[in-house]
Structures are given as structure tokens and as C-alpha cells.
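Changelog-linked ticket: adenosine-5'-diphosphate example.
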Amino acid sequence: MIFGKHINRYYLKYGPRLLLGAVALVLVDYVQLIMPELYRMLVNGLNTGEVLYKGATVPFTMDFLLDKLCLPIVYIIVVMIIGRFLWRVCFFGAAIKVETDIRIRMFDHCKDLSREYYQVNKVGNLMSLFTNDLDTIQECFGDGMLMLFDALFLGALAFSKMLRMDLVLTSLTLIPLTMLLLLGVFMGKTMMKKWEVRQQAFSNLSDFAQEAFSGYAVVKAFVKELVQLKDFRKLNIENEDTNVSYVRTSTMLHVFITLLVETVICVILGYGGYLVYRGRFDAGQLVEYIAYFTSVVWPVMAVAMLIEKSARGKASMNRITELLEAKIDVQDRAEARDVDAIRGKIEFRDLTFRYPDGEFDALEHVSFTIEAGESVGIVGKTGSGKTTIVDLILRTYNVPDGTLFVDDRDVNDISIRSLREGCAYVPQDNFLFSDTIANNINFAYDELDQTAVENAAKLADVHGNVSEFKDRYKTILGERGVTVSGGQKQRISIARALMKNAPILILDDSVSAVDTDTEKVILENLRNTRQGKTTILIAHRISTIESLDKIVFVEDGRVIAVGSHESLLSTCPAYARMVELQRLEDEAKE
Ligand code: ADP
């Protein structure tokens, strides 16, 4: 059994189902304990030709054997089959539902976590929470219920019957059984710690494998396969060691359990045999007593296993709780309201920003305005703060009050959802889903509009490429779009953003992987289709943005100058120097 803030609710939610399972289990346990009495009658009947039945001694005949022993055994077996099926369905069915529900809650919480969280917690680690740890919770929930009820009911009933048969013998058996219980409690703690270490080792392994598969192209290009293999082997051995250590402790526990149980059997055979010798017990009663004891072994073992399982479940639950309670850093303030239609004016007012884990300000005293409908280029060296500017417009991070305004409203007063709905974004990494090209382009919408998809693809100058694929728009892209080239990926990603037709379009270095001619076509299409709508283009090449309405020139987190290309050339020497440098670079390339 596992308890905790995030699991207790399910005991209530699935209460009736668990209760039905418990009733079925108790019924099975009850009829199971009728069997030892039947064994006694059979042994005594065969030995003496007579049996004690309901307080009277009756002859052991064939009719008695069939009516009073065989038939009840058949009934007992039928009840046990139905009962066992029922409690399995109830307990294990509820456990699967709990697992599914927690998985949904985890995924739901994950969607609200900030980018910061994903930078610290890697995908492999998260995946092991969704697989390994959840599996453990499921196992602990179902088995835990079974073990608890069995230990409580079967154990108590069998013990009471044993006590009624002989007080001294039962007291003697209690000594090793108590030791067994204490051992379980003590080892449970050790095992929980070992389980935590084991799960962490598995997470590290998943992290590494996930990164190695995602970055296989880099690994191959740098001929680092062997190094990767060595590192993987090291992690794999660490994982193996933690597993072996856990299994060793668990095996030791089981060996001790078996040892103590066998000790009890010896005690029963020794002292019980003595009782038969003294005439206090007959042979049938000894068989009956041993049968009760074998029924009590499982509940006692169940207690020990319950302790072990709870320990594992608790460790996994702790890891899952950490995820479920991870703080959602970026969220709406109470006063934030939805905006029906964003016009597209963006204003930075003396904004200074530092990343949550940053050691310096990524943006310092940034002030500039983008009027609704303007097309603006943001230009500057790598690391100057261009992406940070668009990250803040998209509210990927929290923004200080009174520093960033959209349509003259503080972004903190606008709901994040409606703000992002007003924006279309082409990120630098051009992530594509493992889905058809059509569905990737149509991502912003639920219903597929093939004509609109093709139009967007034409505007992004990728329609020609897609038409050459055998399955055209139905071509399924591999994981992270590996079946298409970098340039095609970029253009599909642009088509996806254009398809949204949002009031604000942000392209983060999105035409870097296309040739100059294609870039010209895309820019021309942008100019024509984005009339009256705000378009922000981050670029390295001045040629990409020189014809835009406005250019924001950024250097070391500061906005150095804002204006048209011509005005910046004459008023901003740093910009003019950059233009000149790029011209010389282009000439050198030619
Ligand atoms: P650009 O887009 O101009 O190349 P960025 O806006 O990505 O530059 O980065 C600006 C500065 O902020 C850089 O010094 C970078 O190292 C830092 N930075 C970017 N992302 C993070 C982050 N998530 N945490 C901390 N620092 C960051």
C-alpha cells in the first residue's frame, strides 16, 4: 500500500470497486480455511474408519466421503475461482486506472512547466517517470491492496483457528513469525533507499540513450561512437550494479523469510508430533494445524512483501510527486484577461531581464516600439539577446511589470493563452512532429484544410519540394523531421506559422538554411501576405532585413539603434561597420 497526497484520493474514488474486491477476497479466504477441517476428517476417517462431524462421531463411508468431503471441496473450488477472478479484476483494474490517471495528471502538469524546468530535467529522466516509476505505483497499488486484506483477514482467521487448537504451539510459532515481521520492517527502509538509487541510475541511462539517439548525426560526424559506447557501458554497469544490489537485498529478505517459515514448520512437526504422541492431538488434527499454518505463511510473507513493495512505491511516488508539485513559474496573474483580437503593437519600456538561472542580465534597459502592422528586423551578433527579446514577447519567461506592452496593455495583464494565440512563431530549431507534412503545416488548427495548407506551403516556397515526394502532403516525417533536408524543414516550419495567419509573426533566424533566391521568394511573399500585420524577423544577414520598415540593432543585451536601414547606416557607426563587414565577407565568398 502506498499513501500520499497524490494517491489517497484514489482510495476514495475507487472505494466501491476496492470494497467489492475486498469482499471477494475475504470470501475466498474464508472458504479456503474450511479445507483444513476437511483434511482432518479425511485423514482420521482413513485411519480409524470414523470421523468427528458436527460434534458427533459418525462412520466414514463412501456416501460421507462424497457428500461431506468431495462435494464441499467442489463448491469451495468454484467459489475460489469466481472470487479470485473478481478481486483480481477489482484490485488490478483499479490499479491500472490509477496509473492512467496519474499519467494524465503528470502530462497535464508538464505542459505548464517552464522551459527552465526542461533545461534542468532531461527527457530521459522524465520518460522513466512516465514508465518505470508509474509501473511501480501500479504494482504497489494493486498488490498492496491484495496483501493488506489478505494479511489482515486470512492471517487473523487462520491464527484464531490455530490458537483455538493449541495455545502453546501457536505461541511458539509466533516467535519466528515476529522476527520475520521485524526483519521486513528493517529491510524495507534499506530497500527503499536502494530502489531510489536504482531508479536514478535507470533515469541516467535513459537520459544518455535519448541524447545519443537524438544527436547521432553529431556523434557520427565526430567519429565518437566508441566514446559514446564506453560512456554508455559505464552507465549501464552502474545501472546493473544498483540492480544487483537491490536484488541481493531482496533475495536476502526472501531467504530469511523461507528460513523462518521452515523453522516454524520444524517447530510444528516437533512439538505437534509430541502432542500426538501424548494423545493431545490426533493425526488428523496435526494435518489440520499444518494446513492452517501454511495458510498463515502467505499473509505473514505478504506483510514482509508489503513493506518491500510500499518502500519501492514510496520511492517512485516521491519522484512523481516532485514532478506533480514542480512550480509552474510562468503563469497568468489573477488580473490577467483574455484579449479578443490583438492588433500587433509591441512596446519595450526600459526592460532589463535576467534568465532565472542566469548570472548576468541578458537584456539591459531595452526600449523600442513596433507599431501594429510594421515589419521589423532584429539584428545583432550571436548572444546579443535577439532570441531573448522574442521569448519575452511570447511570454516564455516572466516579464517585470511595466516593461513590455502589447497593444498598449502590460503583457502581465493579458492571459498568456490569448497572447500566444495572437502570435505565430518559427523557432530556431524548426521542430517538426512525426506526422504528415499536411498535419505539421496545419498544426494551429483542428480541422485539416488542404487548400490552405498548400497555399501556406507555396508562400514558404516548399510546395514544389513536397509535390515531388511520393505521398506529397501525406508524407510522414520521421522523428524530428529527419527525412527532409534542413532547408525544407525550415520552410515547412515557416509554412506552419504562415498558415496560422496571426496578427504577430515571429521568425527566429528562419531563413538561414535556404539559398539566397529562395530567401528572396519567401521575403517577397511575406511582404505581400503580411500587409497590415506585425512581422518580426531575426536575422544574421543584413540582406534579409534591410528592406523592412524598421531595424532593431542589438549589441550585448542593449538596443543600440532603431530605424530604417538607410537611417541606421548614417546614424549608427556600429551598424554601418557590421554592414560593411558582411559585404566584405560576401565578396570574399564569391
Ligand atoms: P541571440 O539570439 O542574439 O543569439 P540569446 O537571446 O539567445 O542571443 O542570448 C542572449 C544571452 O542570454 C546569451 O548570453 C545567452 O548565453 C544567454 N541565455 C540564453 N538563454 C539562456 C537561458 N535559458 N538561461 C541563461 N542564459 C541564457
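Closing comment: Example verified and attached. DSSP finds 20 helices and twelve strands in the chain. Residues 225-278 form the longest helix (54 residues).
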